[in-house]
């Protein structure tokens, strides 16, 4: 379990915090009868899909959503076998064996997938279907311009053609909002109107009709109940989709009750592995872009851009013993240097993301400082960084 003995860089995931976030969302941000799917694509937004998926299920979610078939297989192979797993992205027909074998629910935008599978079955092996049906959700493009049918005509074409495939179980349809987490509020209304118009044409047998994500759940609750499934992602991990820092003071805006805030569940830490005092005029790191101006304590940290601490995080200070320390010189692939406020020995803990003393490197704050979104900060944490799961 303590698989970081060779290098002290690790992401510590606080499972109770994650669970609390989900339970808060289930209690205050969903309606009775509504299902919740935990979105755990991209390795559970960097937290580790298998562990996070299991905790989400124990916290009461009804299904899981991922981006790719490979991600779904990883979950099934880890004995997550009874709950629905919805693959949200585009899937290739060549994977039909796996999709059926692992009982995945896939997303389609048209009937091309079915045509290709039929072709394949005629040529290869028509027995693979057996008695299992392929569960599908139809993507509906109401303004994201990503995947999905866009017009009533396209929808009718789908409805007509899908009947030719007795092995398809058309279970759901969904859309996705472009501005629910930021941007024009009227665009949400436009998308909702388009969704409602298209949705009327769906056959009654298509039971799941959904569009809600974190932003919808947090900020546009009045439109929520119509969505039979809520696909919560970033909020479960404790971040606001707009990277507003959700703090205790923000809560009254969320709900007029005295509630626990959503809190980031992940902490990214390392330790000093080398420390020295350098005289003025010492150049540091590739490109020799930094030069010390006095006697300075320089520490080396075993983390670099290959871990997902990108070169452009240069201006993000790390935290040591409750004080900020600046990164000096360029960030290397595997290591980087910081200037200490005073001497600290090897083995001193350094926080990249999370709390240290009274300071907090909130992933949303880092994102705002360098001009990206919290999603990208979390999903950038690379596979080389061990995830440590804390039960309390
Ligand atoms: C990623 C994704 C979600 C989850 O979004 P959050 O903003 O993280 O809640 C929901 N639906 C679809 C289609 C997605 O791609």
Question: Would you give an account of this structure?
Answer:
With 392 residues, the chain is an alpha/beta fold. Helices cover 27% and strands 24% of the residues. It contains twelve helices and 20 strands. The chain has helices spanning 15-28, 41-45, 49-58, 69-77, 96-101, 112-123, 152-162, 185-199, 214-219, 251-254, 363-370, 374-379, and strands at 10-14, 35-39, 63-66, 85-90, 105-108, 134-139, 168-174, 208-210, 229-232, 266-271, 274-278, 283-284, 290-291, 296-301, 318-320, 323-328, 336-340, 349-356, 359-361, 387-390. Strands 1, 10, 11, 14, 15, 16, 17, 18, 19 and 20 form a ten-stranded mixed β-sheet that branches. An eight-stranded parallel β-sheet has the order 8-7-6-5-4-3-2-9. Helix 1 (15-28) packs across helix 3 (49-58). It is elongated, with a radius of gyration of 24 Å. Bound molecules: pyridoxal-5'-phosphate (PLP). The site of pyridoxal-5'-phosphate has 13 residues, from helix 9 and strand 9.
């Amino acid at each position: 379990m303590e698989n970081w003995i060779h290098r002290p860089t690790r992401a510590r995931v606080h499972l109770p915090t994650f669970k609390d976030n989900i339970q808060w969302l289930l209690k205050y941000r969903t309606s009775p009868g509504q299902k919740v799917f935990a979105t755990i694509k991209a390795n559970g937004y960097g937290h580790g899909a298998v562990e996070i998926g299991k905790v989400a299920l124990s916290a009461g979610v009804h299904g899981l959503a991922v981006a790719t078939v490979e991600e779904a297989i990883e979950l099934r192979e880890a004995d997550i076998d009874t709950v629905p797993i919805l693959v949200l992205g585009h899937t290739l027909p060549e994977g039909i064996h796996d999709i059926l074998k692992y009982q995945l629910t896939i997303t389609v935008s048209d009937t091309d997938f079915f045509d290709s599978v039929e072709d394949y079955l005629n040529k290869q092996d028509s027995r693979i279907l057996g008695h299992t049906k392929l569960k599908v959700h139809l993507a509906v493009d109401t303004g994201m311009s990503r995947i999905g049918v866009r017009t009533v005509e396209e929808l009718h074409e789908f409805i007509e053609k899908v009947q030719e495939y007795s092995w398809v179980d058309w279970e759901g349809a969904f859309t996705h909002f472009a501005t629910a987490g930021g941007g024009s509020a009227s665009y949400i209304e436009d998308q909702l109107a388009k969704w409602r118009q298209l949705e009327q044409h769906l056959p009654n047998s298509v039971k799941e009709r959904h569009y809600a994500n974190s932003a919808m759940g947090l900020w546009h609750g009045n439109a929520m109940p119509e969505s039979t499934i809520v696909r919560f992602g970033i909020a479960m991990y404790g971040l606001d989709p707009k990277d507003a820092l959700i703090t205790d003071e923000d809560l009254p805006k969320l709900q007029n009750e005295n509630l626990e805030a959503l809190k980031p569940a992940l902490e990214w830490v390392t330790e000093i592995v080398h420390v020295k005092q350098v005289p003025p005029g010492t150049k540091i790191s590739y490109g020799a872009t930094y030069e010390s101006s006095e006697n300075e304590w320089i520490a080396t940290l075993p983390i670099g851009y290959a871990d997902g601490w990108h070169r452009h995080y240069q201006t993000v200070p790390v935290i040591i013993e409750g004080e900020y320390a600046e990164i000096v010189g360029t960030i290397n692939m595997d290591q980087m240097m910081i200037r200490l406020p005073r001497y600290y020995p090897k083995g001193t803990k350094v926080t990249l993301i999370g709390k240290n003393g009274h300071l907090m490197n909130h992933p949303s704050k880092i994102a705002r400082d360098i001009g990206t979104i919290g999603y990208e900060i979390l999903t950038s944490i690379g596979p080389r960084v061990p995830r440590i799961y804390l039960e309390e």
